[in-house]
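debug: dumping io for the single-chain case to check the tokenizer round-trip. Nothing else runs in this session.
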Amino acid sequence: MRAKNWRIGLFVAVLATWASSSSEAASEQFYQGKTIRFVVGFGAGGGFDTYTRVIARHIGRHIPGNPTTIVENMTGAGSLIAANHVFSAAKPDGLTIGNFIGPVVLQQALGNPAAKFDGRQFGWLGAPTGDSVVCALTRASGIKSADDWFASKRPIKIGGTGAGSTTVDVPKIVAAAITLPMEVIAGYKGTSDVRLAAESGEVDGGCWAWESIKPTWGKAIEAGDVNVVLQTTLESHPELKHVPVAVKYAKTQAGRELLNIVDGPYGRMARPYSVPPGTPKDQLELLREAFMATLKDAEFLSEAHKSKLEINAIDGATIDKMIADVYKISPELRAQLRPIVLPGK
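debug: decoded output
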């Protein structure tokens, strides 16, 4: 009996090895000589574009057949155009990878008619890092801490781009969650323009990712001309242990639920990568493995470090769960979020 069981076990092992080898050979045959297209929802030179171009330069080594890669910038509507394209127009053949901002999934879940997709149907590969959103204010604003902000006799002017962006939605959600005196001034083209407006005194500062503020506004922070006064994440960033998190000031369950949203779509799932719905499962799994292998690759990490890109990889299964949670928010929370995230719709 033992000999028979041993022979069966050996047969199963050999069969599994053969199946694995056959699958890898088929994948190599498929990808050899092919080109994978990355569709980025933001312009060249920005954070999303920079992350994608570094990833694209290395991921081919981790895919059987070593395909080449190209990066296409498909801008518009805060990356909503790119999300719609990847969902509906791109072929589900394992040769298109999309990169658009996580909050567009929240917009779709809340009923934005311009979002022509269902976030649960994408094949999510993962994210190179989440965003740790913070609020940074100039010394000229007179606000050096969160306590100063709460005590302000005037609404603090926060610069932002447009509805649907982290720079506008996050401060508005935070203000609703913890009743912080604030006026969001939207309409700037990007965070660089917000920084210039803050330095000229037009606004007092802004709220966006520490991963972006650190390399672009770091010198002003070191000089004491800009102060990081609040984190919108649920847990402190390792470099900002001295800066309080907004949830510390949330006095109601409704406020805490709003801040959970900030930590999700605008935080940990802010920079996800995906493939179109209907992409074959074996290709999805292969690309998921290749994506995560790339984020651990020594050459990739060296280039990311030189480019000042923070890497704290999040796998596809985790993104899947976070996306599903977005569609489970309560009617009460949905009613609070709609006028903030979808004003006038």
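debug: round-trip ok. The CA atoms of residues 106 and 326 lie 6 Å apart.
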